[in-house]
Specification:
The chain has one domain: Vaccinia Virus protein VP39 (Rossmann fold, 3-Layer(aba) Sandwich). The strands form two sheets. A seven-stranded mixed beta sheet has the order 3-2-1-4-5-9-6. Strands 7-8 form a two-stranded antiparallel sheet. The mean pLDDT is 96. Strand 1, helix 4 and strand 2 form a beta-alpha-beta unit. It starts with a helix and ends with a strand. Helix 2 packs across helix 9 and helix 9 packs antiparallel against helix 10. It is 44% helix and 24% strand. The radius of gyration is 17 Å and the shape is globular. The protein is of the alpha/beta class and 238 residues long.
């Protein structure tokens, strides 16, 4: 499991710009923003984001929210996010380092808390105690939320898939844990990748997903790769 963690940490430490190019190609129809806004209308909200990475979700949220405070443990990812956010011309955001299990913010300060493609690392990086670590992260979300606030979790339900299916048994177990033990509701959306060229598709798919997935998804002319994404949410009444 440590080799898988090393793989991702190498990307987060050394290849943040390439990672940002990849995620910028995802969700060609804009389904994620629409789904988030449907779950909890975003206008005027104060939001805390966990595991913000290079700011993909931060950029979406900044269009409507009052303020988004976005945190990530990796400084190189935040530097890339800062560059991307400045390019948007928005000013209603702040970026800082923060661990998913202990955010540097006061209690009951947010209308909505959100994570995207961050919490699920727990099953690969901490296979022996992932339930306890999951409980801690979700408790931190609850601490930060105002009464009546909403927590949203966003994770993969399959790259190269047209119908949702957790990519591994461990991820399926994690997702069931959110639903059965913590009472999260679930829906899924398509967030297909659209690349600028077959060459870019090949480069970015292999860089992040590896040769096996790239070989399965690409045929030499591919620019669109199907992707399914799961969204879990829960309102905390306080």
């Amino acid at each position: 499991m440590s080799s898988r963690r090393d793989f991702f940490q190498n990307i987060y430490h050394q290849r943040a710009e390439q990672f940002d190019r990849l995620v910028a190609r995802e969700d060609r129809h804009g389904n994620l923003f629409a789904a988030l806004h449907d779950i909890r209308p975003l206008g005027g909200l104060r939001i805390v984001e966990f595991g913000a990475g290079t700011g993909r979700i931060t950029r979406l949220l900044s269009v409507l929210v009052e303020q988004v405070f976005a945190f990530d443990i990796e400084a190189p990812m935040l530097r890339q996010a800062d560059s991307a956010m400045r390019a948007t011309g928005t000013t209603n955001w702040r970026l800082a380092q923060g661990d998913n299990g202990r955010m540097p913010v006061v209690s009951r300060c947010a209308d909505l808390v959100i994570e995207g493609w961050s919490f699920a690392h727990v099953v690969g990086w901490h296979p022996q105690d992932w339930p306890a670590r999951t409980d801690k992260m979700l408790a931190e979300m609850e601490r930060i939320l105002k009464p009546g606030g909403v927590a949203i979790l966003i994770e993969t339900m399959g790259t190269g898939s047209r119908q949702p299916l957790a990519p591994s048994g461990k991820l399926a177990e994690l997702y069931r844990y959110w639903e059965r033990e913590h009472g999260f509701s679930y829906r899924w959306i398509r967030t297909d990748f659209q690349f600028a060229s077959p060459k870019e598709a090949d480069e970015l798919m292999r860089f992040f997903f590896g040769d096996d997935v790239a070989d399965e998804c690409l045929d030499g002319d591919t620019v669109i790769v199907p992707e399914c994404t799961g969204i879990w949410w829960k309102q905390f009444d306080g």
